[in-house]
Design a protein that fits this description.
With 245 residues, this protein is α/β, with parallel strands linked by helices. The chain contains ten helices and eleven strands. It folds into two domains: 117 residues, Enolase-like, domain 1, CATH 3.30.390.100; 116 residues, Rossmann fold. The protein is globular, with a radius of gyration of 17 Å.
């Protein structure tokens, strides 16, 4: 399981380390460790339920990094987001390329592109460059090429290029999605939630990992606490990509 491999990899870096603060906003979780490394992860707020206690750790969040790390394996979506944000707080890749994923991804005219998650800016750039786009997303969109998430079972094995949201690491669907996309020539995993740890992804066929490095910890934390989403968060982070050789 990919998430277990990520946890095991980061455990060595997190051993004996403490978490300074945790922010749980309506769009993102932010975790800052004692080294001033910060990681973020998406909040599946539509899956949090309607009961009074969303997080059992509220007010008494563990300070040991290893304890928060283990939350990445939780079946609770919010706890899992905290765990993935903790993983991301310890991600400091030595080699990466700055910039937008589509400037690096091998996309050709005539390609069929499958996109797990609705990435509006990507769709705008790709729609006139490729033969067809399949977007798999929950909810109803009045757009011809958007399909329900379950349609990935039927269509993702047929694509030339697969772009998969990094939030699939949080909800543990990443392994299955990569299996479905295994016929694709190019596979990318992208989002601010993407753990920038290459090997577990690359050995499963991923060509590019696209995520973020937090450059302004104080601003990023403030944005999350005050309910900011991706557009606001972009002011405090840098988009980076790890490309498989």
């Amino acid at each position: 399981m990919l998430v277990k491999e990520l946890v095991n990899e980061v455990r060595k870096r997190a051993k004996g380390k403490r978490i300074e603060k945790v922010a749980i906003g309506i769009s993102y979780v932010g975790v800052v460790n004692e080294l001033n490394g910060m990681g973020v992860a998406f909040v599946f707020r539509d899956q949090l339920g309607y009961h009074c206690e969303v997080s059992e750790y509220a007010g008494e969040m563990p300070k040991e990094a290893e304890k928060l790390l283990d939350l990445a394996l939780s079946s609770n979506p919010l706890d899992s987001s905290v765990g993935i944000a903790t993983i991301n707080s310890f991600c400091k890749p030595e080699k990466y390329e700055k910039g937008d994923l589509l400037d690096l991804l091998d996309v050709r005219r005539g390609d069929v592109v499958g996109m797990v998650g609705y990435f509006g800016p990507f769709i705008k750039r790709l729609k006139d460059r490729v033969k067809e786009i399949y977007v798999f997303e929950k909810g109803v969109f009045d757009v011809p090429f958007v399909y329900p998430d379950w349609a990935a079972e039927l269509l993702l094995p047929k694509v030339d290029v697969a772009i998969i949201t990094g939030t699939s690491v949080i909800n543990k669907t990443i392994d299955h999605l990569l299996d479905l996309a295994s016929n694709a020539r190019s596979i990318a995993v992208v989002s601010p939630s993407t753990p920038l740890i290459a090997e577990p992804f690359f050995k499963r066929g991923v060509n590019i990992l696209s995520g973020v490095l937090v450059k302004d910890v104080n601003l990023a934390f403030k944005i999350i606490v005050e309910g900011g989403g991706t557009i606001k968060l972009n002011k405090a982070v840098e988009k980076v990509n790890i490309v498989r050789d």
